[in-house]
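Re: the 137-residue chain
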Amino acid sequence: MTTGSQIVTDFISAFGRVPALSVVRSGVSQNVFEVAGAPECLLYVKGRSEAPYRWGVTANVVERLKRQKKRWFTVLLYETKETGYLLSSADVLHYIKNVWPLAGNGDYKPASGTYLARNAPFTSFNEFLRTLRAQAS
């Protein structure tokens, strides 16, 4: 079975097959990657390999992202690098304020379903990339 970290690795590797785009790990967090090209942004990427799909979005990482000059997004992957949710920073801040519970360990705990009601899942890496480019422009 593929692990969440392997799904993230596969997802980041997929950027290497996209002309004029590069991705490197940022200094914000081990789960935050800097995309160079079109678009230029930061991606906070989390992966889950098994249902129920619950991710840990760390409050400290969100605070660091809020201080960045670049636009940032959160990607919540499940099962494969092809399936997940793309959340804008505005989506994340809405969910933090109104929906996601904060656990004692400092992680917000989004899950599939009503916890992500503002966002439709993507079903391919190409669909993710089209949506990211549209939102980041």
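The CA atoms of residues 39 and 134 lie 9 Å apart.
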